[in-house]
Specification:
Elements (H helix, E strand, L loop, with lengths): L3 E10 L2 E11 L4 E5 L6 H9 L6 E6 L2 E2 L10 E4 L11 H12 L3 H15 L14 H13 L5 E5 L7 H18 L2 E6 L2 H7 L2 E6 L2 E6 L1 H6 L4 H6 L6 E9 L5 E5 L4 E4 L2 H9 L7 E5 L4 E4 L7 E10 L4 E7 L2 E7 L10 E6 L5 E4 L8
Parallel strand pairs: 3-8, 3-9, 6-7, 7-8
Antiparallel strand pairs: 1-2, 1-4, 4-5, 9-10, 11-12, 11-14, 12-13, 14-20, 15-19, 16-17, 16-19, 17-18
Helix pairs in contact: 2-3, 2-4, 3-4
Bound molecules: adenosine-5'-triphosphate and magnesium ion (MG).
Adenosine-5'-triphosphate (ATP) binds next to β2 and α1.
Length: about 375
């Protein structure tokens, strides 16, 4: 059992606020990913949970016990960092066994625990090798093994597969997820890679400049981003944004005026109601559309905007076509068979049920 609660955590380095009033509740056995650009405070947050860093303000509770001022060694947490410091003179076995030997565990029990970890990590065949004989991936596994044998309540991982090549990272992603299921420890995992975050996390915590932006399941942060930062950061490519303004049509219906192309587009009744209820009718807004929610046609169609192809990227299982709306580039995701020519005139519209709308001034989501 291990629940973690961060209450109003502030961590400063001189005048820099690395973590700014962070509140977070991590459930027992949950796999939570801290995600955000470089310098947003992910590692600092993790170090505060581990006890390697003490917050300037706020409280950290593990299973409702206040551990804010407890040292790392008193917290029953295990951490694995991007750069593993394995002991070069010890074998893989010796490295994994190290914390148990230090605890004075019997030889027999140590062997059992190392075997169990090696089984989970599928590294039984390398236990007699020294670190210099191991590949990067195997070294990661050994370092993970060293954390697993401690049977911690909480696992803290800071970009543990960040240095591996892309193919290997894909494999390790699945393995780490499986590992979490097998050992069932509450896990906080730091990455700046959104694919990693989305594929592994039960919930994703998105930070920027030390400030929490959104906490949600991968589905929530992708489909209901709380603000422009999250909408842009999550998704590859990120969401398309177009400045717009609500406009009353002749029938009293609210539509969105897009100055960049001097056109007005219709929006669903529910969307109109939300804009009115939230008193955003007079505001400058931003229309957000994910590349897969742009409807694309090579033939002229009613209610479609005419545009021109700027660039086509073939990705294998899909294509991304960049088109221009005035000065703005819109990325459109299409089936791989759709390969328009650069310069070709094409037509786009936005799936009205799948648009997002943000307040331009605050950046916050409206719809
Ligand atoms: N010991 C320190 N002394 C001074 N400033 C620090 C220290 N540790 C972190 N910082 C600063 O705090 C901010 C947050 O750093 P942190 O390492 O938590 O970011 P991060 O999100 O982990 O970034 P990255 O993805 O690059 O690892 C950064 O501006 C960083 O320069
Ligand atoms: Mg970091």
């Amino acid at each position: 059992m291990a629940e973690i609660a961060l209450r109003n955590i502030v961590k400063r380095f001189g005048s820099l606020v690395a973590v700014n009033n962070l509140n977070l509740h991590i459930r027992d056995k949950e796999f939570v990913v801290l995600l955000g650009p470089s310098g947003c405070g992910k590692t600092t947050t993790l170090r505060c949970i581990s006890g390697l860093e003490t917050p300037d303000e706020g409280k950290i509770l593990i299973d409702e016990e206040d551990v804010t001022n407890k040292r790392a060694s008193q917290r029953d947490v295990a951490f694995v960092f991007q750069l593993y410091a394995l002991y070069p003179h010890l074998t893989a076995y010796g490295n994994i066994a190290f914390p148990l030997v230090a605890q004075g565990l019997s030889k027999k029990r140590t062997r059992q625990e190392v075997d169990r970890a090696a089984q989970i990590l599928r590294i039984k065949h390398i236990l007699n090798k020294k670190p210099r004989e191991l590949s990067g991936g195997d070294m990661q596994r050994v370092a993970l093994g060293r954390a697993i044998v401690r049977r911690p309540k909480v696992f803290l991982l800071d970009e543990p597969i960040g240095t591996l090549d892309a193919k290997f990272r894909e494999e390790m992603r699945a393995e780490l997820k499986k590992l979490h299921v097998d050992i069932g420890a509450t896990t906080v995992y730091v990455t700046h890679d959104q694919v990693e975050a989305m594929s592994m996390g039960d919930r994703v915590v998105i930070m920027n400049l030390g400030v929490l932006q959104q906490v949600g399941t991968p589905h929530e942060v992708y489909n209901k981003p709380k603000n422009l930062f999250v909408a842009n950061f999550i998704g590859s490519p990120g969401m398309n944004f177009i400045s717009c303004k609500p406009l009353r049509g002749p029938g009293g219906k609210l539509a969105l005026r897009l100055p960049v192309v001097n056109t007005t587009i219709a929006i669903p009744d529910e969307t109109q109601t939300i804009i009115i209820d939230k008193k955003k009718e007079e505001k400058d807004l931003v229309l957000g559309v994910r590349p897969e929610n742009v409807i694309f046609s090579r033939k002229e169609k009613s209610n479609h905007l005419q545009t021109r192809v700027y660039v086509v990227e073939t990705m294998g299982s899909y294509n991304i076509t960049d088109v221009r709306l005035g000065d703005e580039t819109i990325k459109v995701r299409t089936a791989p068979s759709i390969l328009p020519e650069v310069g070709e005139t094409v037509y786009i519209s936005f799936d009205p049920q799948r648009i997002s709308i943000f307040d331009e001034e605050t950046g916050d989501s409206v719809v």
